[in-house]
Write a structure and sequence with these properties.
Layout lengths: L1 E5 L5 H9 L3 E3 L2 E5 L1 E4 L2 E11 L7 H9 L4 E6 L4 H11 L11 H4 L11 E7 L5 E9 L3 E9 L8 H15 L4 E8 L14 E4 L4 E2 L8
Parallel strand pairs: 9-10
Antiparallel strand pairs: 1-3, 2-3, 4-5, 5-10, 5-11, 6-7, 7-8, 8-9, 11-12
């Protein structure tokens, strides 16, 4: 399966439905696929979400929270200024393939107009005010969808990729929503294995959601 669609606007309830059917979106470009080629292999895609009612942080998650308790955290509208662009360019150096060049690559050109849905930014700054991390969540009626995260490579020991995701989970719970969609992982070992290490995890077989352990190989 490899499907692409374009949607200019959707209600929060419609966004919930699309995410529940395995769709992801970068702006108004929606897509879903069940496998993709990577370095000579064909990887099997698994959509993931967290049922917030069943989530509790692990010891490793608690350490990541404590390690970043000195930072100034904020959740609000998306900002795409030169400071954020600079952080994106530094973060993109970590990738060998599919490097994002601008926010439009994963938020769409229409993000400042909240199309097709509202997007919020989670940001973390040092005590001196330096932007160290940003992540982005799409807003539905009963769910949020994690879109993208970036952090300064010089502070990789802080595990800010995990820390921002934990902040997204917290925001989902505070807002009274039930699910946080995590995007895709793979059955085979991959860069996305960290997504499988959260309690309350559910996975989608392209027909229904399961709360059982996520399929894995290796």
């Amino acid at each position: 399966m490899n499907e692409i669609a374009f949607l200019d606007h959707a209600t929060p309830r419609q966004m919930d439905l699309l995410w529940s059917l395995g769709w992801r979106n970068f702006g108004k470009r929606f897509f879903r696929y069940s496998s993709f080629p990577y370095r000579g292999d064909q990887l099997t895609i698994i959509p993931l979400r967290i049922d917030i009612r069943a989530f509790s942080p692990s010891d490793s998650h608690r350490r990541a929270i404590r390690k970043n308790s000195d930072l100034n955290w904020n959740i609000g509208p998306v900002v795409t200024d030169a400071e954020h662009q600079g952080l994106l360019e530094l973060h993109a150096l970590r990738f060998e393939d599919n490097r994002p060049e601008t926010h439009a690559d994963f938020l769409g050109e229409e993000v400042m107009e909240s199309r097709p849905c509202e997007v919020r930014e989670v940001s973390a700054r040092s005590p001196k005010g330096t932007l160290l991390a940003s992540s982005y969540i799409g807003v539905g009626e009963e769910a949020f969808s994690s879109i993208h995260a970036m952090f300064h490579p010089e502070v990789h020991r802080r595990r800010l990729g995990i820390a921002t995701l934990l902040r997204e989970i917290k925001e989902t719970r505070v807002s009274g929503r039930r699910f946080l969609y995590l995007g895709y992982a793979t059955v085979e070992p991959s860069f996305y294995d960290y997504k499988k290490r959260f309690s309350g995890l559910e996975w989608y077989d392209w027909e229904e959601w399961h709360a059982s352990p996520v399929p894995s190989q290796g």
